[in-house]
Automatic annotation (TrEMBL):
The lineage of its organism: Bacteria, Pseudomonadati, Deferribacterota, Deferribacteres, Deferribacterales. Belongs to the ParB family. The keyword DNA-binding applies. Pfam families: HTH_ParB, ParB_C, ParB_N. It comes from the Bacteria. One of its GO terms (biological process) is chromosome segregation. Gene3D superfamilies: 1.10.10.2830, 3.90.1530.30. Keywords: Chromosome partition, DNA-binding. The keyword Nucleus does not apply. This is ParB-like partition protein. InterPro entries: Chromosome_partition/occlusion (IPR050336), HTH_ParB/Spo0J (IPR041468), ParB/RepB/Spo0J (IPR004437), ParB/Sulfiredoxin_sf (IPR036086), ParB_dimer_C (IPR057240), ParB_N (IPR003115). GO terms for cellular component: chromosome. Residues 25-117 form the ParB-like N-terminal domain. GO terms for molecular function: DNA binding.
Length: 280
């Protein structure tokens, strides 16, 4: 399992009010940039307006957590993007911040993800995309993500499954027309059936329990058995390929087909893998 470089998590990077050893700097707002891997993409305008009013009256109480950017004198937000946005709207030119040295790009995403989870700021789809980003971009397994965010592997897996829903269902969830519970009840259904039930939810204000009744017990059992069979097959195939190629293999099933990624650590390793494929 990938070792968590964060140690005790976000609390170890955000200064406590009574700390006397942490140096808090005043940083120009113009020199601060949002974290491109910030999992939170949508900021509630009403909540942001309230925070702006509070900062206008009281200033920024909790310092931002920043990391050095690519350009000299530039900083990337690790924690506190809402405060940064609100401070700008309040007319502040500088904000209090703690600058941390992060040795891995992955830490920026981990910290941003943990901060939002602890504050319960992320929507279900934002959370799912953040998990998937850690897995796709930073070579994490579901177990690694679960370890970082302090959740069970099954909770992480169930959240990621939301991304496999039909586009119309995803849009309805993003727009708040249905709840996460509604969306979960539709996971695994074929697109036609899922969209059909989606319209019934919206038109008739159905509860999650109502939706679960619409999705028959037999359908739910078929979905579960199918996923279990597919997971067993994929895991077995993955183990067989890793033994054959002597490297890490990543199999990503999709709605139509999928992808197989073969990892290599150096040019020599790549040459070895190619020779293995050729049977040399």
């Amino acid at each position: 399992m990938k070792k968590n470089p964060l140690g005790k998590g976000l609390e170890s990077l955000i200064p406590k009010a009574e700390s006397t050893r942490t140096i808090i700097n005043e940083i120009d707002i113009a020199d601060i940039k949002p974290n491109p891997e910030q999992p939170r993409k949508v900021f509630d305008e009403e909540a942001l307006s309230e925070l702006t009013d509070s900062i206008r009256r009281n200033g920024v109480i909790q310092p931002l957590v920043l990391a050095a950017g690519e350009e000299e004198g530039e900083y990337i937000i690790i924690a506190g993007e809402r405060r940064w946005r609100a401070a700008g709207l309040a007319g502040l030119r500088r904000v209090p911040a703690v600058v941390r040295v992060l040795t891995h790009e992955t830490e920026k995403l981990e910290l941003a993800l943990i901060e939002n989870i602890q504050r319960e700021d992320l929507g279900p789809l934002e959370l799912a995309r953040a998990y998937k980003n850690l897995m796709d971009t930073h070579d994490y397994r579901q177990e690694d993500v679960a370890d970082v965010v302090g959740k069970s592997r099954s909770a992480v897996a169930n959240t990621i499954r939301l991304l496999g829903l039909p586009e119309k269902v995803i849009m309805a969830l993003e727009e708040g027309l249905i709840s996460e519970g509604h969306a979960r009840a539709l996971i695994g259904l074929d697109e036609k059936k899922a969209v059909e039930i989606l319209f019934k939810i919206i038109d008739n204000s159905l509860s999650v329990r109502d939706v679960e009744k619409l999705v028959s017990k037999k359908e739910r059992e078929q979905i579960m058995h199918k996923e279990e069979d597919e997971n067993i097959f994929v895991m077995s195939l993955k183990a067989e390929m890793e033994e054959f190629f002597r490297t890490k293999i990543e199999i990503k099933p999709g709605k139509k087909g999928g992808t197989i990624n073969i990892r290599y650590s150096s040019d020599d390793d790549l040459d070895r893998i190619i020779k293995t494929i050729r049977g040399e």
